[in-house]
Amino acid sequence: MNLTTPLRRLRPLLAIAAAFALHSAAACAGDAGTDWKAITDLDAGPREKPPTEEGARLMIHAHLVRQEKALRAFLGAHPEDARIFEARLRLARALQIRGDFENSDKVRAEGHRLLDDLEKSATPAQRVELDFAKVTRLMRNLREVTPARREEVRAAARKFQEAHPADRRLAALLAEVATLFDTQPKVKEALLADAQPLAQDAELKARIADDLKRVRLLGEVVPLSFTSVQGRDIKLADLRGRPVLIVFFAGASRPSVGAIANVQNTLTELPPSSVHVLGVSLDDKREALDAVLKTRALTWPVAFDGKSWESPLVRALGINAVPTVWLLDARGRLRSLNALDGTTSQVRLLLRER
After folding, report:
1. Which CATH number does the domain housing residue 93 bear?
2. Which of 153, 216, 303, 322 has the fewest C-beta atoms lying within 10 Å of its C-beta?
3. 166, 199, 217 — which closes off a domain?
C-alpha cells in the first residue's frame, strides 16, 4: 500500500486492511486454540500511531513479518487443524502484501504459489475465499491504473458478484472497485447502486451514500457559498466565466499539502487569471490550517468552520477523503471528481470550451 494514498474518513474495507493491524504476535504456545487467537489478534487494529511516515512504514513492515512468522509457526505445529486452509490463505495474502511493500518479486511469487496450491484442493466453501483473494490481488497490483486494468478489476468483481451474490464482503468490494472509475461516472454509479442495498455496516453505508452523492453531482451546478478565512464572501455563482478548482484538504495530511503544491504548480503553467481556485479545510483546529496558509503562502479563499468531516458544507458535497480536487467549468458545473491527476491538462480542456 502506498503510504501517500489520500487519507480516508472511512478506510478501505477489503481484507487487505486487516493485514496492516499493528499488534504483536506470540510464539506458538502448543494449544491450537491459543495459537489461532494470537493470529486473529493481529486483526484488531493499531494501538499506537507513529508520528512520522517512516515510523509508520517500519511498524507496518514489522507487523507483516510477525504475522508471517505466527502463521508459519501455526502451520508447522498444527498441520491437521480444521483452520489449516484459512491459515494458508492468510499466509499467501500476507506474503503478497509484504512482497508489494518491499517490491519483492520473490516474496510475491511465494504467495502466488500458495494460492495456486490451494486451488487444487479447495472445497466449494473454500473456493469463495480463493475467488475473493483473486480480486483483492488484482486491486493490490494496480500500480498503473490504465483503462484496461480498471476494466479487468471491474470484470473480476462482477464475476465474484455473479458467483457469490450473498457474500458478506460484496458491498465493500463493489464500493472499493468504484473508486477506480471517477472518470467513468456511469460505471461508478452502477457499481455503487449495486453495493448500496447490500451494505450492512453503518460506516460502509455512509461511505456509499457519500460516493453516490458526489457522482450524481457530476454535470450539475455545485451549491457552494461560504465566508473565507480571509473575510471574503464567496459564491460560486459570482465566479462564472472561468473554470474553478476546489481543493478539499487538511493541514495535518501530508498528501493534502502535496495536492496544494500540485495545484500551485498548475497555476504557473496556465495563462494568468484563467482559473479560480477555492480551498475547503477539513481541519478541526485553526492552527493546522494557519500552518498550511503560511508554509504554502496560500492566497486562495479558504472555507473553514472547525467541524472537520461533520461540516455541513462537507456533508452536503459527500466528501469523505482528502485530498480531493474538483474541477468546475465556466458555467459552474462539476466536470471532474478527480482533478488531482493531470490537473493542467484537465483545466486546459475546459479553457478550450470557452
Report:
1. 1.25.40
2. 216
3. 217
Q: How are beta strands 225-227 and 324-328 bridged, if at all?
A: unpaired
Nearest C-alpha neighbor of 20 from the set 49, 118, 87, 249? 49
In contact, 286 and 302? CB cutoff 8 Å: no
Query: What is the signed CA dihedral for 90, 91, 92, 97, rounded to 10 degrees?
Result: 90
Q: Note the pLDDT tens digit of each residue in 101-131.
A: 898 999 999 998 999 999 998 998 899 999 9
Q: Which domain holds residue 319?
A: 225-353
Cell of 240: 462564472
For residue 314, is it within any domain?
A: yes
Pair (235, 164) in one structural domain? no
CA–CA distance, 234 with 224 (Å, rounded to integer): 8
DSSP 221: B
CB 140 within 8 A of CB 100: yes
198-215 pLDDT tens trace:
999 999 999 999 999 999
How far apart CA 325 and CA 260 sit, in angstroms, is 9
Q: pTM higher than 0.85, yes or no?
A: no
- Whether 2 is covered by a domain: the verdict is no
Lowest pLDDT segment from 36-50, 100-114, 306-320, 338-352 = 36-50
Sorted by sequence, the CB contacts under 8 Å of residue 259 that are 6+ apart come out as 247, 249, 323, 325, 340
Tally the domains of the chain. 2
DSSP 24-67: --PPP-S-HHHHHHHHHGGGG--S---SSHHHHHHHHHHHHHHH
9, 174, 213, 252, 281 from 314: Cα distances, Å: 12, 24, 11, 17, 9
Q: Average pLDDT over the chain, rounded to whole?
A: 89
Give SS3 for 326: strand
Q: What is the CATH number of the domain that holds 285?
A: 3.40.30.10
User: What is the pairing mode between strands 244-249 and 276-281?
Assistant: parallel
Mention every residue, 6+ apart, whose C-beta is less than 8 A from residue 203. 10
